[in-house]
Each structure stands twice: as structure tokens, then as C-alpha cells.
Amino acid sequence: MAVYQSGHIVSITSVSESFPHGQYLSYAVIEYDRNIACKTLVPELFYVAHRTITAVYTNTEPKKTDHSIDGPFVILELSLQDADAPMLFDENEEGRVPRNSPPPIAAGMPSAAPDSYAVCAENRLEITQCGKITACDGTILPPVRERIATCKSHNLIADDFMQFTFEDISYNLFVPAEYSEVKTYPMVLFIPDASVLGTDPLLALYQGNGALSFASARDQALHASFVLAPVFPSSYKLKSDDGLQKATKLIDKLIRLIDYISGQYTIDQKRIYATGQSFGCIALCALNICYPKRIAASILVAGQWDALEMSSLSNKELWFITSDGDARAYPSMNAIISEMEKRGASVNRNIWNAKDSSEKLSSYAKAAAEDSCNIHYTIFENNSVVPDKEEINPISNHVNTWPAAYAIDEIRDWLFTITL
Question: Esterase Ig-like N-terminal domain spans which residues (predicted)?
Fold first, then answer.
């Protein structure tokens, strides 16, 4: 067993996890060459550069646990409030701003920093063992004074995606763990917001829970599926008033990409689903209008499109989600629903408080999904999507609708009940 020259440390791994507002570097795993006595550990025995240690304990496996047990792995949990915690930053001429607040660019919304662009952070930590540690065999492990950089990194769920390019776009693809060519599988297309337009495919994964929620162990156990998450260069940016003609370049590219992946894997063409937020929602409105027989069902989060054009989808299976504080998506979705009802759509309306418990929100969504209506319209009321310490305004309502929508398991589950 190899150890660092300066002590009993075998390896140090930094780990990021998916949270509703994005991917965060949330803990470190220090592997020792022997079992460590958990009861002797306190946070002050360690130092992590530019980070705050919130908990320290041992485990027999290199991962977090609610029940510590003596083992060779020391887990350092880190504060998500640290400036260096987010794995996504917005960069401009003045430097980097961590993406632990609303992104500065959102399609169809005022932009506070038009020259900003998103960049992925490096999953790396520097750690010092400041004090003596007691092993289970009674050995006292002396301090390791120098900073030791992590030698490995894991980005939970995100690392399960593969990255590719197709023509001039980059994309992420999650393949079910037990994929078999003798079976067919559904596929979920996720399109992120305009704040992550660019060429780095990881932007679509680190910016929130939209793609990663469908690839989670929970979702894959219930309905194993492919998850496709493309990112587009800024030349593809689309606004709701651009019209279908300008949208053609983007949506035709999406169809070609879907067809390409369908040629590589056994994708069930009757179970291709789509979801997107803001710019992604706008793109999917256009995609559904132009190719109504390709997508079985869609979750449309905080976006807008021409109401009359959207009314052509009155017989489709769609779930619209917005906040009543979103100055553009809310009135647009109201108009869309009104026009759809004129065309005979059966609409199930729901008004929820996003600050209700996850159990309550799950029960609301389950009841809505069981309704026989083909159009679902969920409104988060009274600025409830906005975190308590965040300023309430149209932008904060807009961007905080995204994580609120994808955090509700039963809304995601609804997609898989629909077949063309």
C-alpha cells in the first residue's frame, strides 16, 4: 500500500455532489493505512484551504454516512456556504463570481452582467492534518504539517455521464447501468438555461439538478433511461419572440442529435421525453410545435412562447411550471393555457407553495399526475421559490423556479407514464 512520504495517508479524494442549485464540492475523503478511532476526531485536527469543515468522522467506505464507524477513511464534510463550494462560476473582466446565487444571464430576463460567461471549477482541495490522530490499534499518527493536494476527485452522478461532440455542439449522455441491446429504453432530453451557453458540456450538469435528477439512483431504479444534456454555443441563443424561422437551426440540430443517438443505442422512439428551463423551455416549445410527433411528453419550466402557436399542442401531454413572481414566464404561460383551453385542452391547474415540505409537494404532484387531464399547469405562489435571504424580484423568481421544479420526484415520474 503506497503512502505519502510524510505520513500514514494513502490518498485524498475531493467529492462534489448534486444539489438543487448546482454541483458543490462538499466533502473530502482521507484514506489512512489503518483504521482510525472516530471518537478521537474533531474538526480542528484538519485544515482545508479556503474551506470550512462542518463535520469529521470515519467510515469503512470512502463516502459520507449518517452513522460513523471506525475505519481507514476519514470524511471531512465542508460548508456549502463557502465561496469556493460551487463547481460553477460566472466569469467576466472583474474575475469569477461563484454560482451560489442567481446566474446573471437568463433567456428572456434582464441581464445584470451581459459580458459574463459560465466556467467549471476544478475539483481540487489542499488539506493539512494539523494534529495527532489516534488509530484503533493505539498508534498515534503525527501531524502532517504541509498541505497535501487531493490526488483523486469524484463528481457524484455527473461522472456517470459521457461527453461527446455532434457537429458544432457538445453534449452529455447518460447510459443506463444495465444497458442491453435486446431491450429498448426511454430517453430524457434536458436543455439548460442560457447562462451556460458555451462549448463545455459539463456546464449543463453542474448548473443545477435538471439533468442529474433523472440519472440519480432513485430515478434509474424506477425507470432506467438515457439522459441527454446538450450545451449550445452562444450563436444558438433563442428568445421567445424570435419565431419558428430562427428556431429552425436549433431544433433541427436537436432532431438530428436524437436520431444519431437512436442509431447508436436501442432508444424507444415512443418514449422520448423532454424538459428544459428558461432558454431550454423556449427551445422545447419550438421543438414540440415543429415536431409534435417526436416527443411523448414534456416538462416546460419557466419559459415562454407565442400562445397561438403553442395552442397547436392542445392535445399533447405537457406540464407547465412557473412562479407567479416571474414577470415573463408567468403571463406567457397563462396566455398559452388560455389558448389551449379554447382548442379543447383538458387542463389541471395547481397552485403550490414551494416552501412546503417535500412530502407535501410530493403528495400534490402525485395527485396532479393521477388526474386525467393532458395539460398540467403548476404555479408556485407568493414568491415561495425565492430563498428566505435572497432579494425578491422577477429574476430571483425566474431562476429559483428551476430547482424547485426538478426537486419534485413525482413530476419527473409523470413523464414515464406517457407513451406516443
Answer: 12-141
